[in-house]
Design brief:
Blueprint (H helix, E strand, L loop, with lengths): L1 E3 L5 H12 L3 E3 H5 E2 L3 E2 L2 H12 L5 E3 L6 H5 L4 E5 L3 H10 L21 H24 L4 E5 L2 H12 L2
Parallel strand pairs: 1-6, 2-5, 6-7
Antiparallel strand pairs: 3-4
Helix pairs in contact: 1-7
Length: 164
């Protein structure tokens, strides 16, 4: 399971991890939104996630904090991308002009965009997730939690996992 602030490199890491491990990759944004940024019925979104986490193996990339426990409770390994805000802001804007075409993380017609709501969400992300993370780590101690704070750390983990 992979989550963290927008622009932190989650999807890039998830794709590399999926390719290295041969595990199916699911991007939550692709399930949360239908075509053209229309939000899917939330219960349907939860049902989709439930189906994914009940399968034998998976990688899920995305944030949906309301359903974080659903994913966390079934995960063996959790990667929390906690890069500095300024890097994430820069990448979100860079993605408007240059997006990795190999990353298929959006529903049809969901073009890359930056909104004031997204920027606010990104600003307060750490404060929103700090308490839920602590509670989940305590509630599910057998799940291995790894906080990644830089591209260098992410690259080292990808390389280590690729060698297995």
């Amino acid at each position: 399971m992979i989550f963290g602030r927008s622009g932190s490199g989650k999807s890039t890491f998830a794709l590399a991890l999926s390719q290295a491990a041969g595990l199916p990759l699911h991007h939550l944004d692709k399930h949360f939104f239908e075509a053209n940024w229309i939000e899917r019925n939330y219960q349907e979104f939860l049902n989709i996630q439930q189906g994914i986490v009940e399968s034998d193996s998976w990688i899920i990339d995305g944030n949906s904090l309301q359903s974080l426990e659903l994913r966390y409770s079934k995960a063996d390994l959790i990667f929390y991308f906690n890069h500095p805000r300024w890097i994430c802001y820069l990448r979100v804007f860079q993605r408007l002009f240059k997006k990795n075409s190999a990353i298929d993380d959006r529903a049809s017609g969901c073009k890359e965009t930056v909104s004031l709501g997204l920027l606010r969400y990104m600003w307060s992300y750490e404060e929103c997730v700090a308490k839920p993370i602590d509670l989940l780590k305590e509630k599910y101690p057998s799940a291995r939690f790894v906080e990644i704070t830089s591209d260098k750390e992410a690259e080292a983990i990808k390389n280590k996992l690729a060698k297995r």
